[in-house]
Design a protein that fits this description.
β4, α3 and β5 form a beta-alpha-beta unit. The mean pLDDT is 96. The protein is globular. The chain folds into two domains: 139 residues, 3-Layer(aba) Sandwich (Rossmann fold); 167 residues, Lactate dehydrogenase/glycoside hydrolase, family 4, C-terminal (L-2-Hydroxyisocaproate Dehydrogenase, Chain A, domain 2, Alpha-Beta Complex), CATH 3.90.110. It has nine helices and 14 strands. With 313 residues, the chain is of the alpha/beta class. The structure holds adenosine-5-diphosphoribose.
């Protein structure tokens, strides 16, 4: 039995971090693809030279040719522009749609049996486009957003309460935009409702910080967007697929009637195992949460419609 093969499409900040994490967590051989010549090769060499120290034996190579992703079990896509201060994720739509179309064609031709995890923004529109262009079934194309947004929620709550992040459970659903939906009704500390620990006004402030958390990092970095935590989140999803863990994680999944939506991707809890996105879990939401999900979904639908005009135009 050979090793699994992980293709990383986009070898920038997130791509490089994904490669490092995949190697140290022993997920398999890594191929870093980018359009920039030399950069993926340079990062691969640098990573390879750390192998004896970690140690890991898996191979890591950099390439500018899609042929080298052949046989990949998983493709994780970060190709595209990242946000700069003052930009919303939606501002990336036109540029990243062109890039995502090229990338999806490359994956369709050279890694037709792979599980595809999209990270590029605006996430919900990009993953919808990737499914359309690859023509892959819905279980093999998924978007990474909810694992990250939920981790941000958990981090801020754990900081507030001065408890371990492991004692806090929380989920953020909806689109990966400023109207994402932190699900307060499902948020617990050691199994007890979060509202037993934090009063409403403060909780609302924390949730507002969650919605703007990506922007908070962009404003500080000035030259790009978050990359350590997005990479960690996508690796968690890839691991659940490669190890058939069947973990329930929030992720952008293609909906066909679940939560009342159809025909586009939205952040919902899904089970990820050897079958890819094996099922969508329908949680009971409060009325306020359902309404917020509706607002977020309408925004995603608008973006998907804008995508159509960008592609046709
Ligand atoms: N094919 C492959 N790679 C491409 C293409 C393309 N057509 N066009 C650009 N790239 C590469 C760039 O050369 C760059 O190395 O995508 C990489 C993106 O890396 P960064 O600019 O460092 O961005 P990163 O922080 O990794 O974020 C990537 O994920 O979270 C989202 O909003 C973020 O859309 C952005 C993406």
């Amino acid at each position: 039995m050979g090793r699994k093969k992980i293709a990383l499409i986009g070898a920038g900040n997130i791509g490089g971090t994904l490669a490092h994490l995949a190697l140290i967590r022993g997920l398999g051989d890594v191929v870093l693809f980018d359009v920039v010549e030399g950069m993926p090769q340079g990062k691969a060499l640098d990573l390879m030279e750390g192998g004896p120290i970690e140690p890991f034996d898996a191979s890591v190579t950099g390439t500018n040719s899609y042929e080298d992703i052949a046989g990949a079990d998983v493709c994780i896509v970060t190709a595209g522009l990242a946000r700069k201060p003052g930009m919303s994720r939606d501002d990336l739509l036109a540029t990243n749609a062109k890039i995502m179309t090229q990338v999806s064609e490359g994956i369709r031709t050279h890694a037709p049996d792979s599980m595809v995890i999209i990270i590029s923004n605006p996430l919900d529109a990009m993953v919808t486009l990737a499914k359309r262009v690859t023509g892959f079934p819905k279980n093999r194309v998924v978007g990474m957003a909810g694992v990250l947004d939920s981790a941000r929620y958990r981090s801020f709550l754990a900081l507030e309460l001065n408890v371990s992040v492991e004692s806090v459970q929380a989920m953020v659903l909806g689109g990966h935009g400023d109207d994402m939906v932190p699900v307060r009704s499902g948020c617990t500390v050691a199994g007890a409702p979060i509202t037993d620990f934090i009063a409403e006004p403060r909780l609302a402030e924390i949730e507002a910080r969650v919605r703007g958390a990506g922007g908070e990092v962009v404003a500080l970095l000035k030259t790009g967007s978050a990359y350590y935590s997005p990479a960690t989140a996508a690796i968690r999803m890839a691991e659940s697929y490669l190890h058939d863990k069947k973990e329930i994680l929030p992720a952008a999944a293609y909906l066909e009637g679940e939560y009342g939506f159809s025909g586009f991707y939205l952040g919902v809890p899904v089970q990820i195992g050897a079958g890819g996105v094996e099922k969508v879990i329908e949680l009971k939401l409060t009325e306020t949460e359902s309404e917020a999900l509706q607002v977020s979904a309408s925004h995603v639908q608008e973006l998907v419609e804008a995508l159509d005009s960008v592609i046709e135009g």
